[in-house]
Amino acid sequence: MGQALPEDGELIALEISEVNAKVARENLAGAGIRNARVVVGDAKETLASLPTEEQFDLVFIDADKGSYPTYLLEAKRLVRKHGVIIVDNFVQLGRVADESFSRPPTNRPFEYPTDTTVEGVRTVLRILNEDKEVEATTIAVADMKGYDGFLYAIKL
Hints:
4 helices; alpha/beta
């Protein structure tokens, strides 16, 4: 996505730790993306601090799934009219649609689906069901690891 930016465009990545930020910077540099900025800190606080004067064309969300509702509402505030919001990991092996699914979170990082990750997505779906300012769809994808998907939303 960063390689498709216009000359005057900017990619802003939010990372929770300096370790993750270092990896992000290295990946961006390796991809030849020069107009990128990596911000370290809690994404909820960082997003809330961003002004709406310079609106985004696209927001891509791939973070702690339990906070997806907060990220969606902040993305909606920050994206321009007809801007795009993409939320990754939205299908979670079909567990989001499985009402009987139950798996308490563990201490293992990046493990999903869990009750927390599934509920984060379900809450976003409930928000969008009532939201008249956003049109959205879920797109499923599959590979050798299983299947997942993403939400593709447009601010009307």
